[in-house]
Amino acid sequence: MGKMDGAPQLRLLVVLGSLPALLCGQRTTFGFIGGVNLTRDFPITRQTYVDPNYPQGLTAFDLYSDTRSAIAGVSAEVALVGGLSLQANALRRSMALRRRFVFPQGAIQDDGRLAVVTWQWPVLVKYSLPLKGSAKPFLEAGPSFRTRHDPVPAEPSQLGFTAGAGAEFRWGRLVLSPGWRYTRWQYDGDFPRIATKRDQVEFLTVIGCVTSVPSWKVGGKKLRFGLVGGTPFTAGLRQADNQLQGYVVGLAAEWDLRPRLSLESNALYRPLRVGGDPSLEFTVLTWQFPVLAKWRLKPGAAVQPVLEAGPSFRSSGNRNGYHPSRLGITVGGGIETFYKTLKVGPVLRYTRWSEDQGQRGSFRWFLFNRTAPNQVELLVSFTF
Questions:
Q1: Phi, psi for residue 67 in degrees, rounded to 5
Q2: How confident is the model at residue 1 (pLDDT cuts 50, 70, 90)?
Q3: Domains in the chain, please, with CATH?
């Protein structure tokens, strides 16, 4: 196993450990969010050289963007106290990278374009100003995370900070919330990466519906939603050195079938990262989708021991030569306890993944880069 960096895990667990004192609000808002960027996706990068076919002067090769990108996704917001709320979004944004040649006499030749599809995950604390009127102004700020899924020569940074402002309008349970956001992203890195523009301004609008926690039922059975996060105890890649044992974060849903039995499903984002030499850094992005049957040993107790088991599915992007397997089996054990309407559930999970894609048969010798088949992680879920 490679080198492990424990600081990100500690920060994540501290943040998650503070959530029970905050996430006790009853009002929640789910909806769709969409908009457009107001700044370039990429700054203009120009290289000049002498082309023997055009001896009159220097020929320029430009990388740039001059179009706006559509942004769309889903939004969830939980009311806290005193005008505060916690909002999380999942935003899909396609970033356009264009190429062109500019010849000495001024002629321009287009050289095509590439689309870099990214997902942005802002987690923002929102404060609604205590003003009267139909429009409720608000301010918001918090971290933003980013992933991409295209094998092109751009690798957008994964972390940024977002601040924004807007106004919220409400008609019954319907909410309309337009606003502006500014995000400052970390630097993407030097050549051969093509750096995206670090300063981004976006205009976004949320259209949502207000609901309450007690109303979440299917077939008369309680349905819970929430957040889950934690840290892996095992490396994700087999042969790579200097691995950074990062974090696991995502969404949780649970359907209480009986006092002892429930069905839980997660959508977990886990980046498999390799550090060390900046020129050799890379990340394999994975999404894990465990579907688990959960059994409570002491239903109704203040602290309930639980066991869980079921299949896990996995998708991947930004593979960097790896081909993570898509199917595994997960078992785990932990406890559950309640704080008002909030259920807190720490659990230790073990997943055994099948062979990576392409390892079977005559192709086994060809694939050197492999993910680790055994995965152990500590997760904490917070559901309503």
A1: -120, 160
A2: very low
A3: 27-212 (2.40.160.20), 216-383 (2.40.160.20)
